[in-house]
Amino acid sequence: xxxxxxxxxxxxxxxxxxxxxxxxxxxxxxxxxxxxxxxxxxxxxxxxxxxxxxxxxxxxxxxxxxxxxxxxxxxxxxxxxxxxxxxxxxxxxxxxxxxxxxxxxxxxxxxxxxxxxxxxxxxxxxxxxxxxxxxxxxxxxxxxxxxxxxxxxxxxxxxxxxxxxxxxxxxxxxxxxxxxxxxxxxxxxxxxxxxxxxxxxxxxxxxxxxxxxxxxxxxxxxxxxxxxxxxxxxxxxxxxxxxxxxxxxxxxxxxxxxxxxxxxxxxxxxxxxxxxxxxxxxxxxxxxxxxxxxxxxxxxx
Length: 301
What we know:
Elements: E1 2-5, E2 9-13, H1 15-34, H2 37-60, E3 64-71, E4 74-75, E5 80-88, E6 94-103, E7 107-108, E8 111-115, E9 121-129, E10 134-145, E11 152-167, E12 183-200, H3 212-218, E13 222-239, H4 247-265, E14 269-276, E15 279-284, H5 286-295
Parallel strand pairs: 4-11, 13-14
Antiparallel strand pairs: 1-2, 2-11, 3-5, 5-9, 6-8, 6-10, 7-9, 10-11, 12-13, 14-15
Helix pairs in contact: 1-2, 4-5
């Protein structure tokens, strides 16, 4: 039951609150009719409990300021986390807040902020499920609490005008090295591949790497050195002029997004080149490449 709504702050009675009010009114009527002092006392206690519930729930939603909304890696079909950061001016106050993020399209699961931990900066991570890649607009944030007894529920709506970038779904593709437009370049570094030489023993070296012949010849411990071949970069290319808007183009973006995710799991660097009507654009790094694919538009006719 809604008691008032001024656009930002809303107060409503819960079902438990309605049942409590009915019981309180019935008890008050019996006390007046019978003149029993015990019933008057119980009625007074119930009124006081109801008023305290409203006062405490009002305090649970005050003294809290939204500082920023931080996007994680949001993928179509996979979702991701959105971090809500607050400045809590009463860090020891228990709040019991339900947090809901309002968006244009898509779905965001509600989160919970309990408060009372003595930390002035509160963080809540909400799981978001966008519908399509590109910019995703946030329109509002609602804080709702029924603390402490659940008789009254107060909600406070904070209007937002912020956009989050949604990345293409990282669809699993062919094995490494078979994606369209991909190339890798090798390098050698010290590791555990083929033998490369020997050097004096250092603190922290594994005893299994001791070079016994060199140790016997020099009279002091020597260890083997190794080298391994590692892939230091994955190059991806996409010609926007060769694609028309549609499902095929989206699938290609998803395959390239999957290649970036594969490179991330392998701890490899990513280099992306986009060719379009305005020329060539190069991006270095996994995050920059992902964001470029999220905003890419097919230019073919």
